[in-house]
């Protein structure tokens, strides 16, 4: 326990004797069986992979630990990324832990407050780009030509190598691959990484099957579904507000090789799933993460036969990243009372 992604899965990672075996305790996240929604969608078994339990609250830490270790191995002292929020929080944390400088470019006005506050608290140099994520990513891809920085976005292959360990954990927990994996798709690195992980275990005989990869984009940011880049992506799920994903072709390969699909879910469907995850399962995730459950609900409503199937929904990040949204979304009324027993009892429907 707590040995981290590098040690735990060393044999599956591109490490050398010179790679520093850093860890902040990433990985080994819970795979939790659904208590209510499994029956409602009619699955044989439904599990949630709780990636919000990673050190910075999202799955990004799995890939970041590998990318940062390799950057250190190469003697780099500054790491760089563009981000819708979680990558920047993760880079900044590992940068701080390893004594590196971290530079992050984030799209103006569309990063959840929790994520931005992480980057700032960890001491990253935060540059706000007056544009969207895709423009910020285009910029950071050019910067290493001008400045000695190591790019740690998922175009860095070490990121996907680390992220594939989540698929290993799912199979280690279940004893085999699930039938379906439902996962949000933004820059499309994670779906690509999971597919790499599932294939590696199947190829080496550690799993007997491979899941259908079911990716879900937000309807207002669904370039892979539409078949063309989206110039001004819009969705409440700011983490996946991405119009031109870096791993587009790789995600299509994961979809096609697995016999899966990449579909879109509306903001309404995302928010419905976001509410149900919290109120029916006790899992507070961020809206982008709820896209996987929204997608599963969409599949079920279209009549997909799931009754003997094992399904895993990847819950990519914690809801605490964006508490303002939770407060906007709730219909719960917060009641105020005077600090005496009589007043509290009367609010709760009893008199003394
Ligand atoms: C919670 O942080 O792209 O398809 O810059 O934060 O691998 O991009 C985040 C993406 C899903 C999509 N869920 O994963 C970033 C960033 C959450 C995320 C995704 C993201 P990819």
Span between termini: 51 Å
Work out the helicity level: 40-55%
Strand order of the largest sheet: 1-2-10-7-8-9
* Beta strand count: 10
Structural class from helices and strands?
Answer: alpha/beta
Shape: globular
Ligands present: ligand AN7
How would you sum up this structure, described in words?
Helix content is 42%, strand content 14%. The chain is built from 15 helices and 10 strands. Strand 7, helix 9 and strand 8 (212-218) form a beta-alpha-beta unit. The termini are far apart. The mean pLDDT is 97.
Produce a short descriptive summary.
The protein is α/β, with parallel strands linked by helices. The chain has helices at residues 4-8, 37-41, 60-73, 86-98, 113-121, 133-142, 157-163, 165-174, 189-203, 223-226, 248-258, 267-281, 287-301, 323-329, 341-347, and strands at residues 31-33, 45-50, 78-82, 101-107, 125-129, 150-151, 180-184, 212-218, 261-265, 310-315.
Outline the secondary-structure elements.
Layout (H helix, E strand, L loop, with lengths): L3 H5 L22 E3 L3 H5 L3 E6 L9 H14 L4 E5 L3 H13 L2 E7 L5 H9 L3 E5 L3 H10 L7 E2 L5 H7 L1 H10 L5 E5 L4 H15 L8 E7 L4 H4 L21 H11 L2 E5 L1 H15 L5 H15 L8 E6 L7 H7 L11 H7 L5
Parallel strand pairs: 2-10, 3-4, 3-6, 4-5, 7-8, 7-10, 8-9
Antiparallel strand pairs: 1-2
Helix pairs in contact: 3-4, 3-7, 4-5, 7-9, 8-9, 9-11, 12-13
Bound molecules: ligand AN7.
Ligand AN7 binds next to helix 4, helix 9 and helix 13.
């Amino acid at each position: 326990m707590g040995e981290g992604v590098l040690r735990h899965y060393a044999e599956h990672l591109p490490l050398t004797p010179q790679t520093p075996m850093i860890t902040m305790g990433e990985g080994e996240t819970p795979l939790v069986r659904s208590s209510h929604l499994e029956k409602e969608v009619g699955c044989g078994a439904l599990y949630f992979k709780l990636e919000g339990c990673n050190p910075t609250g999202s799955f990004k830490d799995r890939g970041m630990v590998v990318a940062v270790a390799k950057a250190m191995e190469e003697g780099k002292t500054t790491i760089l990324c563009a981000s819708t929020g979680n990558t920047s929080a993760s880079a900044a944390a590992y940068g701080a832990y390893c004594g590196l400088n971290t530079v992050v470019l984030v799209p103006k006005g569309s990063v959840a407050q929790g994520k931005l506050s992480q980057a700032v608290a960890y001491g990253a140099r935060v540059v706000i780009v007056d544009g969207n994520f895709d423009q910020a990513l285009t910029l950071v891809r050019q910067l290493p030509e001008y400045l000695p920085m190591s790019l740690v976005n998922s175009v860095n292959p070490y990121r996907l190598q680390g992220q594939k360990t989540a698929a290993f954990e799912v199979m280690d927990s279940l004893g085999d691959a699930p039938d379906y994996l439902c996962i949000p798709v933004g820059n499309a690195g994670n779906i690509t990484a999971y597919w790499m992980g599932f294939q590696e275990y199947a190829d080496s005989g550690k799993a007997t099957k491979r899941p259908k990869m079911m990716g879900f984009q937000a309807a207002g940011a669904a370039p892979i579904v539409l078949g063309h880049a989206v110039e001004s992506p819009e969705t409440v799920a700011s983490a996946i507000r991405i119009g031109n994903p870096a791993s587009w072709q790789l995600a299509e390969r994961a979809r096609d090789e697995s016999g899966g699909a990449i579909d879109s879910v509306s903001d309404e469907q995302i928010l419905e799933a976001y509410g149900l995850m919290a109120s029916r399962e006790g899992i507070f995730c961020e809206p982008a993460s709820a896209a996987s459950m929204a997608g599963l609900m969409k599949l079920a409503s279209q009549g997909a036969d799931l009754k003997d199937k094992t399904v895993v929904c990847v819950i990519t990040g914690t809801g605490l990243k964006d508490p303002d949204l939770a407060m906007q979304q709730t219909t719960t009324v917060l009641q105020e009372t005077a600090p005496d027993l009589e007043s509290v009892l009367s609010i709760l429907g009893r008199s003394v």
